[in-house]
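User: quick one, sequence for these tokens?
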């Protein structure tokens, strides 16, 4: 037991003394116009941002925006940052309770920066959707592409902003 403790303390001390980290925290690849599309979608369809997805990222990005409205419906619209004036929303079939979504205290943009922190290199976020667990707690679920070609998923708590889980899989195994 004593040897393990000394070994652990030695490893901790040596990691603190190194000049460069062995692995840098992940950064987010730019998502041009995403914040513009989010603002336009929430202005035209008041509610809570339920999700977004990159539909096309060349040369001008196109995003699918999803908004949960106060009546519990989810409305989807395609958005190009150059054409945000009149988004055409289509309601999905079914509904959700709106009340739990009003408790979200962490902005999506902050969660977007937290999501790739455990991955190395520049991470390309492809989509976000709000998920829920069996107890009704909400999280932001991000799907990403890593520089290694792997696909990754991470969950960020909507109330605390903590990264609660992250995993990576090979590109074709999802």
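Assistant:
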């Amino acid at each position: 037991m004593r040897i393990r403790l000394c070994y652990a303390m030695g490893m901790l001390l040596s990691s603190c003394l190194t000049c460069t980290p062995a692995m840098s925290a992940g950064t987010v690849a730019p998502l041009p116009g995403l914040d513009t599309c989010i603002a336009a979608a929430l202005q035209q369809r008041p509610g809570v941002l339920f999700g977004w997805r990159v539909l096309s990222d060349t040369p001008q990005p196109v995003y699918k925006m999803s908004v949960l409205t106060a009546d519990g419906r989810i409305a989807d619209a395609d958005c190009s940052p150059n054409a945000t004036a009149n988004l055409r929303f289509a309601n999905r079939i079914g509904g959700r309770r709106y009340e739990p979504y009003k408790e979200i205290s962490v902005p999506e943009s902050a969660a977007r920066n937290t999501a790739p922190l455990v991955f190395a290199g520049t991470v390309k976020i492809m989509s976000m959707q709000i998920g829920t667990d069996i107890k009704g707690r909400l999280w932001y679920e991000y799907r990403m592409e890593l520089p290694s070609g792997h696909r990754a998923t991470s969950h960020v708590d909507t109330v605390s902003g903590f990264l609660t889980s992250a995993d990576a899989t090979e590109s074709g195994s999802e």
